[in-house]
Design goal:
By secondary structure, the chain is an alpha/beta fold. It has one domain: Uracil-DNA glycosylase-like domain (Uracil-DNA Glycosylase, subunit E, 3-Layer(aba) Sandwich), CATH 3.40.470.10. Helix content is about 45%, strand content about 15%. It has a six-stranded mixed sheet, with helices on both faces. Helix 1 runs antiparallel to helix 4. It is globular and about 45 Å long. The structure holds uracil and iron/sulfur cluster (SF4). The site of iron/sulfur cluster (SF4) has 14 residues, from helix 4.
């Protein structure tokens, strides 16, 4: 059921021309992972590799994210679904404009309604602001559970920020450890993780 609904929505996204990003994209990146995943990870926008392959988080940021998930004993096929605030790559990886974000957000909202994840992880400032408003600050709000229409939401740094500034990795790891604890509370009390 969720797979069918997601596929239906994906068809719409693949044909979408609702904002100017459609003109410069190679292809939209809908999102991928387990349609019944307990954890939804939300990034900003596809980058070069994602635009080329059509798969979310396959470039350098994605590889770092995958390493962090492995340390939590989560896999991107099983416990996780990954998507972005906008589905098409902005030229030169610029931040998607507010109008582009509001054009695309209904797709993410529908993905959330279909997947109904137990935990949502927001990666970076753009995702945080899209959910909680322009006055949100990732440096201030990361690492604290927030509530979004009943969903448990953990904001943390975007992996691209961790690549630019490795000093932030320690804080990001603290945030992911909180996700492991919440996962045990809400999903599987026996979830094994050698670090938590
Ligand atoms: N960065 C993002 O925010 N999303 C991706 O899919 C890849 C890189
Ligand atoms: Fe459509 Fe979103 Fe792509 Fe804009 S970014 S064209 S709204 S899918």
């Amino acid at each position: 059921m969720t797979t069918e609904s997601l596929n239906e929505l994906k068809k719409q996204v693949l044909a979408c021309q609702q904002c100017p990003l459609y003109a410069t994209r190679n292809q939209p990146v809908f999102g991928s992972g387990n349609p019944e995943a307990p954890i939804l990870i939300v990034g900003e926008a596809p980058g070069f590799e994602e635009d080329k392959t059509g798969v979310a988080f396959v470039g350098k940021s994605g590889q770092l994210l995958e390493k962090i998930l492995k340390a939590c004993n989560f896999s991107r096929e099983k416990e996780v679904y990954m998507s972005n605030i906008v589905k098409c790559r902005p030229p030169h990886n610029r931040t998607p404009a507010p109008t582009e974000q509001s054009a695309c957000l209904p797709y993410l909202e529908q993905q959330i309604e279909i997947i109904r994840p137990k935990i949502i992880i927001l990666l970076g400032s753009t995702a945080l602001k899209a959910f909680f408003g322009a006055s949100s600050r990732i440096t201030r709000e990361r690492g604290q559970w927030k509530n979004w229409f009943g969903y448990e939401v953990m904001p943390t740094y975007h992996p691209s920020a961790l690549l630019r500034n490795p000093g932030l990795k320690r804080d990001a790891w603290e945030d992911f450890k909180k996700v492991v604890l919440k996962y045990r509370e809400l999903v599987d009390k026996n979830h094994y993780c050698q670090y938590v």
